[in-house]
Structures are given as structure tokens and as C-alpha cells.
Amino acid sequence: MSTDKENISEYYGKTLQSSKDLKTSACCPVDRMPDFMMPLIQKIPDEIQEKFYGCGSPIPLSIESATVLDLGCGSGRDCYLLSQMVGPGGKVIGIDMTEEQLSIANKYKSEFLDQNQRNCGSIDFKLGEIENLADCGIEENSIDVIISNCVLNLSPDKHSVFKEIFRVLKPGGELYFADIFSDRRIPQSLKKDPVLLGECLSGAMYIEDFRRLMTSLSCPDYRIVKKSAISIEDAEIKKQVGMIGFYSLTVRAFKGEYEDRCEDFGQTAAYLGTIPESPDFFDLDDHHRFNKGKPMKVCGNTSKMISETHYAEHFNLHGDRSIHYGLFEDCGGLEKEKNQPSSCC
Ligand SMILES: C[S@@+](CC[C@H](N)C(=O)[O-])C[C@H]1O[C@@H](n2cnc3c(N)ncnc32)[C@H](O)[C@@H]1O
Q1: 344 CA distance to ligand 1 centroid (A)?
Q2: Cβ neighbour number for residue 89 with a 10 Å cutoff
Q3: Which end of the chain is more exposed for a tag (fewer CB within 10 A), N or C?
Q4: What is the pLDDT of residues 134-191, one digit of tens each?
């Protein structure tokens, strides 16, 4: 393990005892938890919840019977939650490199699964590094959904992490993650600071470099689902980071062939209201809310994000790609891109 990773493991395995020990709000849930999650969370043991260091709720809907992989699962809160959502036909795999975190995750597993066996999918926690999922036995094209909550910023080799993600996802599979991003590149002098790194700040991805990374991995269109600013109250840390702006983003991306711009083929999509946790609307991203029964004009990429993925059964889609009408103007074209952190529609 590299020194940076040893420092991170030390931080999460020994320095922090609970989320109360964090010095910033970076590794804390900044968005309100959706209502449907409340009863599911209540079934999760307190010790696991106290050691939850996520920065969002990257829990996708419509995942019944899915195989879900949680990168950097920590003490496993999201895995316990996902196991209830995938149900008895599903499977959740959590990977983390910090033994102390995984020992908490494993401590309650048998009891939890025994008590909830009728409603839960299996859970498998694996000790390993997210840059090399093959070493953890994760095969190519084997995963329906990958989630990650405030972890990817901590990796010193983000290119390998995202390359692995797209290797192990099935075609049409979804990546849905929450993480810390910055509005500029972090200077080298801050990158080695163990507290800034552990608090998910100095490893934060500069959003434009993230866009370049995703494009280099043939994923030019990913979607921002939520964005929240990170407030830094600790005076010392505030002084260190100076003008750098940090925010937590929830991002979704799919494995498939997407174009780098939103193109118009005259397609529409109407949500059927069939996802039990969201009967009235479905939010694909921060600017696509599909109200039940109301057809919406969509670009070619959005249409594919629905028709080729686990969301397909919940939509009525119309149109194909036989006629092209030019750039999809309802997405705002170039003008909108200037103000959007995302790369496309
Ligand atoms: C901020 S915590 C988040 C944990 C968990 N996702 C949650 O929401 O509570 C970061 C976790 O990522 C793990 N981690 C960081 N870098 C990793 C890597 N390269 N490979 C595997 N795990 C890693 C750490 O051990 C730690 O448990």
C-alpha cells in the first residue's frame, strides 16, 4: 500500500472514531435523505451509522434483484441499505482497504441478514483497493450498479478507478456516486497534508479534469444529480485552502456509447410512475424531472440512458434515430454549457 493510502487508512481506521470527529462538513451527508430511506436506515445498527462518512445519498432507484458494488464501503451503511433495496434476488458487494472499517461492517452482517432474510439480498465485504477490482475477484461486465460515497477523491490514481468501473459494469450498467469536487486544481503543497486528504478535500477532483477523465474513458455525457457547497468552519483548514471552492456532487453515468453533445432525433419519454419509491416523478438529473404520464422531449443520449438501462421498464419511449434534427436545443446548447459543470445535456 502506498504512503498516501496508509495515511488514509490510519485516518479512517484509527484517528476517526465517529463522524463527530470530522473537522469539516466534507464527509458528512449534506443533502437531506429521501423519505423512503428512513425506515430502511432504522434497521441498521447504531455503530455502523455512527461511522458513516459519506457526503450524499448515492442510492439509485429501480435496483431490485441487481448486483450492486459499493466502492470504499467503509463500515457498510450504504451496503446494509442497498441490501434491503435489491431484495432477496439481489447481491451487494462492498470493497474497502481499511480493516477496521470492514470489521465493523462484518460485525453485524449475520444478525442483520438473519433478521431480514425475507427482504434482503446477500452482502459480501471484501478487503481491497478500488484501483484494482480484479484482485477482489470482480469480473468484467458483471455489475449492474456501482455506487460510491465520498471515496473516489481519496484515490491517488483516479484514472485506474474509473477505468476499472467501466470494465466491471455490464453494458447499460449505472455508476451513481457522491463525491467532493473543487473549482480549481489543488496545489501539490496541500495534497500531502494527511488531515486535508482524510477530510476529502485535498484529493478533490477539479470538475474540468473530471470531465476530461470521463471523456478519455468514452463517457462524454455524465449527469449531475445534485450539487451542494461544502462549508469549512475550521479556521486552520479555511486558511490552508484559501480561495478553493469545494462542493459535493452526486453524479450518474452509464456504460454505453454516448455522444459528446445532445443531439435531437425527435424522441420523447414518459415516466409510468412505476418506481415505488418515486410514484409521481423521476429525476434523472438536476434538469430532467419526468412527471408521471407527461411525455417530455429528450435528446438521443437521454433516450439511451433510459432505453438501454434498468430504468427502461418504467418509461414509454417514442422515436428512434432515423431522422436527425440537429443539436438538441432544449438542453440549452453551448450557452448552457458555460454555466454547467456537466459536459452535456
Ligand atoms: C470518507 S470514507 C466513506 C466510507 C463510506 N462510503 C461511507 O459512506 O461511510 C472513505 C472510505 O474509503 C476507503 N478508501 C479510501 N481509498 C480507498 C482505496 N483506494 N481503496 C479502497 N478503499 C479506499 C477508506 O478506507 C474509507 O473507509
Answers
A1: 29
A2: 11
A3: N
A4: 999 999 999 999 999 999 999 999 999 999 999 999 999 999 999 999 999 999 999 8
User: Phi and psi at residue 263, in whole multiples of 5°?
Assistant: -110, 150
267-339 to CATH, choices 3.40.5.100, 3.30.565.10, 3.40.190.10, 3.40.710.10: 3.40.5.100
Ligand 1: does its nearest atom lie under 6 Å from the Cβ of 250? no
Please work out whether the CB of residue 11 comes within 6 Å of at least one atom of ligand 1.
no
- Report whether CATH 3.40.30.10 matches the domain 3-254: no
Q: Is 98 in the pocket of ligand 1 (CB under 6 A)?
A: yes
Q: Which of 4, 97, 177, 199 to mutate to test the pocket of ligand 1 (most atoms within 8 A of CB)?
A: 97
For the chain, which residues make up each domain, given as ranges? 3-254, 267-339
Q: What is the pTM of this model?
A: 0.94
Phi and psi dihedrals of 103, rounded to 5?
-70, -35
CA of 262 to the centre of ligand 1 (A): 34
